[in-house]
Amino acid sequence: MAGAEDVRVLGVLASPFAMRPRIALNLKKVEYEFVVETMNPKSELLLKSNPVYKKIPVLIHNGNPVCESLVIVQYIDEVWSSSQPILPADPYDRAVARFWAAYIDDKWFPSLMGIAKAQTDADRASSTEQMLAGLQLLEEAFATCSKGKPFFGGDALGYLDIALGCYLGWVRAIGQMYAIQVLDGAKTPQLAAWAERFCADEAVKEVMPETETLVEFAKMMAARWKAAPAPAK
Amino acid sequence: MAGAEDVRVLGVLASPFAMRPRIALNLKKVEYEFVVETMNPKSELLLKSNPVYKKIPVLIHNGNPVCESLVIVQYIDEVWSSSQPILPADPYDRAVARFWAAYIDDKWFPSLMGIAKAQTDADRASSTEQMLAGLQLLEEAFATCSKGKPFFGGDALGYLDIALGCYLGWVRAIGQMYAIQVLDGAKTPQLAAWAERFCADEAVKEVMPETETLVEFAKMMAARWKAAPAPAK
User: Fold this and answer.
1) Which of A17, A20, A49, A68 to mutate to test the interface with B (most CBs of B within 10 A)?
2) Taking 90 as the threshold, does the pLDDT of residue B24 lie above it?
3) Which structural domains are found in chain A, ordered by start?
């Protein structure tokens, strides 16, 4: 359906944020080109397309750049509105999905990354506890949003599936590096089963990075954080 | 049009975030009850309606709570979709509006509050510089979004007008407290003129707090920040 359209995603393979537009475009069956951003130095295309943040991902649709991964996913849903919907149809369900997507980015993912960034065992334990408490909330959110169906979005992947699912590669990598059972079938059985379904979905398979690749990347980043710890927040 | 509906906004008068749903409901001509949250201690209604963040504002629509001010504004736009639209109709314009609204909350407003929170003159100067640089970006965004019309949203107030405009009371209060010309007619002429129009709009007038009230509130907060400075970010 996107024959005459020029659709490009500027990103890097290890970025969960860059996975979001790719999964959304796959769900919509829109053909796109994935342009790998070298980052060091940042490409002219990135600097020109996202002058405010200079960050990936950027969706470039017929020459028009769209920035910020969740803004991009909503844009994709609205432009290709006749294909499989990504946000729920009902306004209240949409508000609930937007609320939890923001929670995942603002609160939950920082606690997951806090495990890798921690410089002491106490900090790591504190981040782990926060991250697991957040997952418990998300387990309850899954029950509310999925209404007994396989995905947050119901019968098929939707907005919240994409928002949380893009982090599953990092969940595995950090779990492996620090011997933490992040998605525990006993504590968060619904999310654990959902994660299996999400990763097996056709729209996701080709864009989910190998855990080993992320572990390598995380080790490199951990060495960098150790050399220059992030400022306290 | 909202005769049989139960619409309540839980908030406090000085909160820019609580102004957002109120302006949106005024634009839609939806009747609502403003429930003043006492905050200390937090009400049972707040704790029950927003158990994750325990923060105002909350919109309670026929018993269903919606949290996070920009999520609420989008919800209002989608529920009362036959009245004056709040988000632009075009998907690209919507993405641009969402991008800048997030920028305003994540980057610009923290730099404005940084002026009040600063414990040293150097920190205050640095926050002032960041805030003014951000305004310059928003001046350009105004030109792009308004397309020569009076508001970000075009002929009438829209999403981005609400997102930025709700901070104008704080712009005045902080400008007065620290003798800073925030909206400078020479440097940001379009925003300065827009701010006058925004504050004079019927949907805004009754919800915009008096500058003096905010100055009093800011002085109280400044004393608190001096006693317990916020952690570095």
Assistant:
1) A68
2) yes
3) 7-79 (3.40.30.10), 91-227 (1.20.1050.10)
